[in-house]
Description:
Blueprint: H1 3-46, H2 53-74
Amino acid sequence: MNQIEQDLKKMKQAIDQARDVRYRAEAKLEELENQKERILKELEELGVEPEGLDQEISRLETEIQQAMEKTWTLIPKELIRHES
Length: 84
């Protein structure tokens, strides 16, 4: 095989590989776009705007912390083990 044929073969392999990478990237992009749409729809169903997500997370963390504190106050002190 002469040099030109070898170079053409390498070029074809590179092009085929690039095409394969492109197809996989397009499939991944489509998958991510679908996932984004599902998440946005779920947020909408929960009544949360994407821009308010950080605030909602903070609110829920505070709510959980308060519920845990209240629960601790309801447990008799004699039943709480003290670690040494």
